[in-house]
Amino acid sequence: MLGDEQTWSRWDHITGEAFAGPLDGHRLESWPIRHTTVAAMAAERPDLRVHVSDFKSLGSRFMTALNGRKIDRGSFLPPPFYKSMSQPIDPRLPKLANGLGVIVEDVGRYYPMAALADPVQEPWGDRVLTVALGAVDGVPRATWADGSEPMQLFTRWYGFSFTWPGCSIYGQSLG
């Protein structure tokens, strides 16, 4: 959740939609969010300048020690975290499964890491979407045939399904 100091509205940090305050129902502009590594960006764009902070919060150090640094490694969230959620977690996938959530015109589709050993190409409306793991970082990324990117989030299942309830899952039938 985010808040602004001008109107004191509260905003969903994933969808950009205000859910309380004078701007309730309004939506901020959003764009694709790409998770990657410095090594992958250096390979893709050698001219890119990168500045890395030495600061590591206590929470960041704790979670790194607990979960490690690999993107597909299992993880742990303390049980009280789940009690803070306002609805049950969608049981169709393990709650901590990693994957790529793609959103087009408020329609969400989840691509579990386990289904992405090979690149996936599929029609989405009148376009063709490709979802593939990065060669250097192993992070999934979605692109349209023309090279542009849809809104996408590399995230755990519980978070994506919470924000886009009833979303489809690649590799599972729609019926």
Question: What are the key terms here?
Answer:
alpha+beta; 4 helices; 175 residues; three-stranded antiparallel β-sheet; 2 domains; four-stranded mixed β-sheet
Q: What amount of the residues lies in strands?
A: 25-35%
> Strand order across the biggest sheet?
9-4-5-10
Q: Helix amount, in percent? A: 10-25%
Task: Name the structural class.
Answer: alpha+beta
Q: N- to C-terminal separation? A: 34 Å
How many DSSP E strands?
10
* Count of DSSP-assigned helices: 4
Query: pLDDT average, as an integer?
Result: 86
What composes the largest sheet? 4 strands, mixed
Rg (CA only):
18 Å
Coarse shape: globular
Instruction: Kindly give the count of domains.
Output: 2
Could you give the order of the helices and strands? EEEHHHEEEEEEHE
> Spans of 5+ residues with little confidence (pLDDT < 50)?
none
